[in-house]
Known about the structure:
This protein has about 90 residues and is mostly helical. It is built from 4 helices and no strands.
Amino acid sequence: MLNTSKTIRYTTTLPELYIDELKHMAQAKVIPSVNFAIRAALDEYLKQMKKNEYEAMLREAANDTAFMQRTLQCADDFSFSDGEVPGEW
């Protein structure tokens, strides 16, 4: 999860059922706190949104002929040196 020393207080509205379930989980020691669970969920959501954005950029780049030619040429240029290192470096 995102570790940062700088935080801000922000008020939001969530369904009562979500909060009740999170409180129950915190009381049962399944999660450290309601705040922890909300931060963890937001962290995962933001990671997924950034991944989706990156994948969309890659799909767009794959349709760019000049980009693909440069990429393939670069891969070809380094194909010999890649074979010099066994396994994953």
